[in-house]
Write a structure and sequence with these properties.
Mean pLDDT: 78
CATH topology of the largest domain: Thiol Ester Dehydrase, Chain A
Low-confidence stretches: 1-9
Shape: elongated
Strand content: 15-25%
Number of strands: 7
Order of helices and strands: HHHHHHHHEHEEHEEEE
Radius of gyration: 60 Å
Number of helices: 10
Oligomer: single chain
Number of domains: 2
CATH superfamily of the largest domain: Hotdog Thioesterase
């Protein structure tokens, strides 16, 4: 007989036959057990031991194999599957008919007691108020950042527009080393300085301190050349600015770091001091108090020793409109205010530029 059945009826017959075969096998086992019980004890023990130690002859093994095969075949039978589906739908229909409620969910465990009481959330602010607050915050932050970034530039512009007066520049310098203190004291208390300070119409100042602090590192004589070993202290300047042909006297100290040859002050530095000193002497005579160098002639007389106190003297000789001619020299500072040895002489022509009107307050000598 084939093990595959396409017809449900044939499959049913096959199952019935296998059931009858199983019953017959079980009946044969019962007769065998009856005969076994009637056998002598010694023979019965040997038969039982042989039967239950051999899976092939064991009634228990035979029973298990037959039962397992029948279950597998029955589960694959269409009638068995149909019966299971019907039983499933019948159970659900009966449950709906009896109106059995679904099982209740397990209640959530109670929350542990809190040590602090929770405050109710605050009601949300209106959108317009939030927008206004955000705008004010961003505006304040932007203005504060802009003010911090623009502060150095504002100080520089204010220094150019409103420079300190001549008298104020004398209070802006504070020596930072004992050597600078000694040099500054020698310049301010020298007999020549005392005599010029007492002359009517003459003013005393430190003009390099009119340059805003932020710009001094970018200025040659007002920043780069100032310091220990160089121009040790800002030059002390006396000027007769009210005269028709103004004059200027400037006292300085030139350190060892300004040399060309060892122990000799560089000639280029002396030329720079003359260029600025002669220009500053004639500025009050020009219409807008400022000019640029048109020509500069220099004659070097003797070497200028390093570590010397020097005096620059300048005299305006002629003024024509926007032009001014000036002569001057640098000498070693003599004792008791007397004249010292001239180391270099110069003559120069300065012309006021056409756009000088806008530069008047920046470079004003008043």
């Amino acid at each position: 007989m084939s093990s595959d059945f396409s017809d449900p009826g044939d499959s049913s017959n096959r199952v019935v036959c296998e059931v009858y075969w199983y019953i017959a096998a079980m009946s044969a086992q019962r007769h065998t057990l009856t005969a076994l019980l009637a056998a002598p004890p010694a023979l019965r023990s040997d038969i039982v031991r042989l039967a239950y130690t051999s899976l092939r002859h064991s009634p228990l093994g035979l029973h298990r194999s037959i039962a397992t095969g029948l279950r597998e075949r029955a589960h694959q039978h269409p009638l068995y599957k149909l019966r299971n589906r019907r039983a499933f739908h019948t159970i659900h229909r009966r449950a709906a008919h009896l109106d059995i409620p679904p099982p209740a969910p397990h209640p959530a465990p109670p929350a542990p007691p809190s040590a602090t009481t929770t405050t109710p959330p605050s009601p949300p602010r209106p959108r317009a108020a939030r927008l206004l607050f955000t705008t004010l915050l961003l505006t304040t932050t932007f203005l504060a950042s802009f003010a911090m970034a623009a502060l150095p530039a504002a100080e520089t512009i204010n220094g150019f527009v409103s420079p300190p007066t001549d008298a104020e520049t004398l209070t802006l310098y504070h020596p930072s080393t004992p050597l600078a203190t000694e040099i500054n004291t020698h310049l301010t208390s020298h007999p020549l300085a005392i005599r010029l300070r007492a002359q009517p119409g003459w003013t005393e100042s430190r003009p390099h301190l009119k340059i805003p602090p932020a710009m001094r590192p970018h200025n040659l004589t007002g920043g780069t050349l100032l310091g220990e070993g160089k121009i040790a202290v800002p030059p002390l300047t006396f000027q007769d600015a009210t005269a028709e042909l103004p004059e200027l006297v400037q006292l300085s100290y030139l350190g060892e770091a300004l040399c060309g040859h060892p122990g000799i002050i560089h000639g280029g530095l002396l030329a720079t001091l003359l260029d600025e000193g002669l220009a500053r002497a004639c500025f009050p005579a020009l219409p807008n108090k400022v000019g640029v160098t048109a020509s500069l002639k220099i004659d070097y007389r003797v070497p200028c020793p390093a570590g010397s106190y020097v005096v620059l003297r300048a005299q305006t000789t002629k003024v024509e409109g926007r032009k001014a001619w000036v002569k001057g020299w640098i000498e070693v500072l003599g004792e008791d205010g007397g004249e010292g040895v001239k180391v270099v002489e110069a003559e120069a022509l300065f012309i006021e530029p056409r756009g000088a009107k806008s530069m008047a307050r920046v470079y004003s000598t008043q």
